[in-house]
Amino acid sequence: MTPHDYMRDLTRFPAYVYDLNGLREHVAAIRSSLGPELFYAAKANPDPAILRALAPHVDGIEVASGGELAHVRRTLPNARLAFGGPGKTDEELSLALDLGVERIHVESPHELARLAAKGRPAHVLLRANLRLPTTGAALQMRGAFGMDEKALTACARTIASSGPHLTLHGIHTHLASGLDATAMLDLARHIIDWAIPWLEAHNVASPEINLGGGMAVDYTDPETRFDWKTYAAGLPDVPAKLRIEPGRALTAYHGWYVTDVLDVKTTHGETYVVLRGGTQHLRTPVTKGHDQPFTVLTRAGENRAATLVGQLCTPKDVFAADVPVPASLRPGDLIAFAMAGAYAWNISHHDFLMHPRPDFHYLE
Ligand SMILES: *Cc1c(COP(=O)(O)O)cnc(C)c1O
Fold first, then answer.
1. How many domains does the chain divide into?
2. Which positions are catalytic?
3. Is the CB of 127 under 6 A from ligand 1?
4. Best substitution site from 177, 231, 244 to test ligand 1's pocket, by max atoms within 8 Å of Cβ?
5. What is the rounded (10 degree) CA torsion for 247, 250, 254, 255?
6. How many CB atoms lie within 10 A of CB 67?
7. 72 lies in a domain?
């Protein structure tokens, strides 16, 4: 049964539908084309069913908080974990050591000092904040993330002088998001060209370079995919183990938010389609400032322009503005918003207005 057929048969809305089979195939294909290790950035969607579906097809999971760490460890007791993110507390660092995190991505000299003070074995990548060309990126990870060269070098010295319990394994980066394969490759080459001599200069044995995530997802064209083959083929052969940690490009495509039309009305010449639920369940279009791609499941025919809104008492509750919908659309019709598998439910402000939560369905 296709996800669309499945959604047409539902009786309660709104609902999230995840196609776990499609997700497995998608990620397995990515991994088979890749040289680098593939970690999944759990913050894109930490739903336990998604994590379990992904686990056999990735090398590990990247977590970005103590909460994610505890959750992923509970869900996948044997997964290899990398722990990143700014502002890690002492409690989070202890939890990482207690739960057997394989790599801690250290974000600052102060964080490293606090980790060193625990006197327990810890395996470290240093997060680098490099000023590299990232033209075309949707989001540049500047600001508080990671360290410049001066701080990185200070950290390498701290590790060298702090005894055998701290091991420096390499460099972690996550410099931009929304880059296509060519731009991402260009960025990766810059990172590698900088990192290899740096790692050699600091005598890092069996060095590792984590190139981060941020592979582009094009919401204006749900059928396009990041060109993993070009990316994989273009990565240079280097004396280091490479790793990537995408989130969005792995899980975005296999989730839908499906709901029914409550009302269709025309106000001051504009047609509004009011849907059950709202952006408190699917914040993605508000956050990204885009029209969420959608399919009308129950009606076809000649189109007219309309704005798709939810039940919230705010003009910001818009899924898609001034988009074509069938002119005969009416209450009871079903609309499925696509590309709702990443940064969708889990980034949304669920309790605002206290409407019922969606049901969740998992296609196996
Ligand atoms: C968010 C994040 C990722 C994943 O980014 P995507 O755009 O979802 O691929 C990877 N690494 C770090 C450090 C992140 O903060």
1. 2
2. 313
3. no
4. 177
5. 0
6. 12
7. no
243 CB within 6 A, ligand 1: no
Q: Is 61 in the pocket of ligand 1 (CB under 6 A)?
A: no
Query: What is the mean pLDDT for each group of 10 consecutive residues in the chain (364 residues)?
Result: 96 98 98 96 98 98 98 98 97 98 98 97 96 66 85 97 94 93 94 96 96 97 96 96 98 98 97 98 98 98 97 97 98 98 98 98 96
Task: Give the domain range for residue 242.
Answer: 80-246
C-beta 178 within 6 A of ligand 1:
no
Domain's final residue, options 191, 214, 246: 246
Within a domain: 291: yes
Residue 222 CA to ligand 1 center (angstroms) comes to 20
Start-to-end CA span in the chain (Å): 10
* Cα of 174 from ligand 1 centre, angstroms: 7
CA distance 332 to 342: 27
Q: Which atom of ligand 1 is nearest to the CA of 177?
A: 7
Residue 19 lies in a domain: no
* Side chain identity, residue 283: R
For ligand 1, say whether the CB of 177 is within 6 Å of any of its atoms.
yes
| Structural domain contains residue 87 | yes
User: What are residue 59's phi and psi, to 5 degrees?
Assistant: -85, -20
Distance 202 CA to ligand 1 centre (A): 27
Tell me, yes or no, whether 221 and 344 share the same domain.
no
CA of 302 to the centre of ligand 1 (A): 41
Residue that is last in its domain, among 181, 212, 246: 246
